[in-house]
Design brief:
The complex is a heterodimer. Helix content of chain A is about 45%, strand content about 25%. By secondary structure, chain A is of the alpha+beta class. Chain A has helices spanning about 1-30, 55-65, 65-75, 80-95, 140-185, 185-190, 195-220, 230-240, 260-275, 310, 335-345; strands at about 40-45, 50-55, 100-110, 115-125, 130-140, 225, 230, 245-250, 255-260, 285-290, 295-300, 345-355, 355-365, 375. The longest helix of chain A has about 45 residues, at about 140-185. Chain B is about 35% helix and about 25% strand. Classes of the chains: A alpha+beta, B alpha/beta.
Chain lengths: ~375, ~110
């Protein structure tokens, strides 16, 4: 019973195969092109010496090389120098051992740029002859996406460690301040500035958490501006009156523009905090003036400056201008400031001479183009 | 001679740690970084140094190297008071490594050296 059924199945399979092959063969003889030339991957055939016998159009277009050039043993020259030895060794190994191979390497494109491919090679025996059929699939975009995602993960991990340290600093002060408040007799507390210092630590923690939440809101496009008439002189004056750091504040002409007073306070607080932190105790100049239809605020310090190699990244999220140990900071102050000013239709430009100081030029249009009410960032 | 030299860059911690230790009856001075501390140590003797590690300029690591190179002050015991979870080797002049915030469990240690 079993044997009878098996033979029926074998018969049916054979019939289907015959039909299939007949159709395929007919198809191959009637179409006027090679389907391999329209596959978005490179396909090649070589003999055991490594001489390329045939390549599809994709590989010729991608490399800009003809089959003759590739055939002339030049295929290894289009492989990235760092991958060449590995690929040549593997090629010898698969030829000697009749093995299959699969792996990733970089190939030079016609524009002179190396691109990542995933290649595989299979031995094929036909009419007593051994051929090697290989294919190359473009994975450069996937590699780039993977590298970007790994970099983003590393940046986020670094940020978590920095953020924990930054939150820990005011918390350390706060724990000691509360402990001391519990130990000191009331008359000593009244005669000291311990209560106001404790409140300062609480505000510092509160501000750090607000900054973190702002980054989260910007990332989710969930931040909005509450627009109104703002007085930039008052905003800046309110910030600088709290510090004993040496500052010169000059105002020429108008001081009014249209914007979100709370967000603009954050912008100038962040820029001025940086100027004081990196200002080496040298005076900071703040220059407020009107230029055409914009208000311009220039903040110049004479401090340690920014290394030119970091100047273009200082407005990026989690960037700290190459400063790590000791200076503190979450690396989000200028990122948030730049996002807020862009939302106002303005710009922030940074200039710096390493060792001589930095200048931040904030430009805000006096009348925001969409100043009809609240706007989403 | 004073009991403790606090080296700490954060203004709030420096100030409250000084008051906290003074309230325990110690004589305390403080410095904002390693460079200021090295100058201070040239002028006055201290029983023990309470050292923060991450500071701008001359940080805790630089300070330890410079202090060890100076015959006059290399013997002064140091207690590392750091915010990180890193554990510092107790060697030579470093008698303890304490995670911030500094608390009363470590007063006996200070008493031994101050």
């Amino acid at each position: 019973m079993t044997a009878y059924n098996k033979s029926i199945y074998q018969h049916i399979s054979l019939t289907l195969l015959l039909v299939d092959v007949t159709q395929w063969s007919t198809f191959m003889t009637t179409i006027p092109f090679s389907p391999c030339d329209f596959v978005p991957s490179a396909i090649w055939v070589s003999d055991r010496t490594g001489d390329v016998m045939w390549v599809n159009q994709y590989l010729q277009n991608f490399t800009g090389l003809t089959v003759e050039k590739l055939n002339n043993r030049q295929w290894d020259e289009i492989i990235h120098p760092e991958d060449r030895e590995k690929v040549v060794t593997l090629w010898r190994n698969i030829v000697d051992n009749n093995a299959k191979w699969e792996g990733e390497y970089r190939v030079l494109d016609a524009q002179g740029k190396y691109r990542w491919f995933r290649g595989n090679v299979n031995p094929v025996d036909k009419q007593g002859q051994r051929y090697w059929v290989g294919s190359l699939t473009f994975i450069d975009d996937l590699k780039e996406a993977l590298s970007k995602s790994e970099k983003a993960k590393a940046t986020r991990d670094d940020f978590m460690s920095i953020a924990s340290h930054e939150l820990k600093t005011p918390l350390t002060a706060l724990i000691l301040q509360v402990k001391l408040l519990g130990k000191l007799p009331p008359e000593k507390i009244v005669n000291s500035n311990l209560v106001s210092e404790t409140l300062k630590s609480v505000s510092k923690l509160d501000r750090l958490i607000d900054d973190l939440l702002d980054v989260h809101r910007i990332d989710r496009n969930a931040l909005s501006l509450k627009l109104g008439v703002v007085n930039l002189k008052e905003i800046i004056f309110d910030i600088i009156k709290k510090t004993s750091y040496p500052l010169n504040f000059s105002i020429a002409g108008s001081e009014i523009c249209f914007g979100d007073s709370l967000r603009l306070t954050q912008v100038f607080t962040n820029i001025l905090n940086n100027a004081m932190k990196f200002g080496a105790n040298k005076p900071i100049n703040i220059d407020l003036r009107k230029e055409g239809d914009s208000m311009v605020v220039e903040i110049t310090d004479g401090g340690i400056g920014i290394d030119p190699k970091y100047l273009h990244t200082i407005f990026d999220k989690y960037e700290r201008g190459g400063k790590t140990v000791g200076y503190g900071g979450l690396g989000i102050g200028l990122y948030v400031a730049n996002k807020f000013i862009s939302a106002h239709g303005g710009t922030i430009v940074a200039e710096s001479d390493k060792g001589k100081g930095s200048k931040f030029i904030v430009t805000i249009p006096t009348h925001y183009a969409d100043s009809g009410g609240d706007i989403k960032l | 001679m004073k009991d403790i030299l606090v080296i700490e860059d954060d203004e709030a911690i420096r100030s409250v740690l000084t008051s906290y230790l003074e309230n325990e009856g110690y004589t305390v001075e403080n410095c904002v970084d390693g460079a200021a501390a090295l100058e201070r140590l040239e002028k006055e003797k201290f029983g023990v140094i309470l050292l923060d590690m991450a500071m701008p300029g001359v940080d805790g690591w630089d300070f330890l190297q410079l202090k060890r190179a100076n015959k006059k002050i290399r013997h002064v015991p140091v207690i590392i008071n750091s915010a990180s979870h890193e554990i510092y080797t107790i060697e030579k002049d470093v008698v303890a490594s304490v995670k911030k915030p500094f608390d009363e469990d470590f007063f006996p240690l200070i008493r031994r050296h101050a």
